[in-house]
Predict the 3D structure of the following.
Amino acid sequence: MLAALPEADYAVAVAIAALPGQVRGYGHVKAASARETEIRRADLWARLVPVPASLRKAG
């Protein structure tokens, strides 16, 4: 499957795969790290799999 990805998408897929290792810390530090990582994940995923305009939420 990865072999079929264009080179730019491959880099995004690798970045997504690396995200779990970026969540560090304990308690509130880990929670903040997880929130930041989730935002980054959503951004990367949107680059990898664009959502058609007809399916995007308005507002």
